Amino acid sequence: MSKFESSSVTKAFQKSVKSYLPDSLKLIAGVSGGPDSMALLYLLHRFEMDAVVVHCNYQLRGENSEKDQRLVEKMSSFWEFECVSVKLENESMNNFQAWARERRYEIFYDLKREFQADFITTAHHQDDQIETILQRMLRGAGLTSWRGIRPIEEQLFRPLLEVSKGEILKFVEEFNIPYRIDNSNEESTYARNFLRHNWFPEMRKFFPGWRDNILKLRDRAEEYELMADEILKSVRMDRKSLKREQFMELPEKIRSAILVHFIESATKEIDISSSIRSISENLIELQSGKSIQLSSNYKLVRDRDLITLNRISDEKKASVELKKEDLSQIKAVYGHQMSIEEYDGKFEDNRLYADLSKVSFPITVRHWKDGDRFQPLGMEGTQLISDHLTNRKISSAQKNDAFLIETFDGNICAVIFPHNTSDDQIGTLSESVRCSSETKKVLVICNQT
User: Fold this and answer.
1) Among 76, 179, 271, 321, which one is least packed by beta carbons within 10 Å?
2) Is residue 177 part of a domain?
3) Which residues are annotated as a binding site?
4) Which domain holds residue 291?
5) 320: left (phi over 0), alpha (psi -120 to 50) or beta
6) Does residue 271 have a pLDDT over 90?
7) Which tens digit of pLDDT belongs to each residue from 203-234?
8) How confident is the model at residue 194, as a pLDDT?
9) Residues within the annotated binding site for ATP?
10) Last residue of one domain, picked from the residues 185, 206, 227
């Protein structure tokens, strides 16, 4: 057996490919130029796998970013891979990493469709797994999320999840695989880097074997999921319906946990873990025909002896055009009220105030689409709405629930979030409709009460 074949990295890669990709498939490979992704690229080369290499250049580090790109392009050519490099301009106001990840995966998925590839492959490794589990624990995520990231999820393939960062560094040195280090990864600005550089060295001192213990949590999470599956089977009528009587007989804490499991098994679009206890309690008194709205897309409906998860009709979410006189007649649009009021210079929480003189009617209320831009209040220049929602920490699953208000002249004067944010804001007003000392009347937007 050769040195390459006996490497723990090679063996882990082979095992993962054999387990999850039994057939010869085409891949989109995300390669940054760092040691992890360059090791992945080398393995794809050695095993003669069909892949298109994709490199995202965020242009944050000047010439160093250009050197990263040139390295990936050079080695891709040397190992006979087609390479697509994409240069991006940072449009994130706050959370660059979230913005960068979203943009990166949008590009991966677009190229997957263009090249008709089967999977997107990335170089996530065991250290990434540990960091992910720890972050989810510290943020209060449910036990099932402690499974961490999986080797294969939908269209993503991660063949190095069982390999540590130390093993990868040894591998690239041993086989003279060129790579570059992004110095920003050495900073403790971001959550992962804080864990990596501040927590982990101390953990090794005080808790020997802590890494293995964290990884064992994946097994506990899977055990929990299996038990939840068995309980759910006993109270579920079908994929989107619960047998009410049997469900209500469950102990209160178990009932809440099973409700979360039921919703998660039916759709990935809803994040309700923080409010699940109150939702579970409200189901007790819910009358037949009544419902509890979970998001702008879903609601739980009491239908005699069943509790059903219903998707709200897309017809109710069609674009709505409103004349000024319509505002005094309609009750709500997309769950929000709009009214015209005299302006007294005061502002209330959970309400947006637009200078009426700067709003050209009729206005259109619609869901945002790719490419929509606006100028957030207090910001110079415009921003993609998709980036704005990311910066305001609206999850990917809920982004599609956001909507906007567009004036007759095509100006987007407000973006409304699918739920109140952590700072209790319902949305963001555009700078173009900012109120001033000259404002006489305002268009007021608020949640339906």
Assistant:
1) 321
2) yes
3) 32-37
4) 239-311
5) beta
6) no
7) 777 888 888 888 888 888 888 889 999 999 99
8) 73
9) 32-37
10) 206
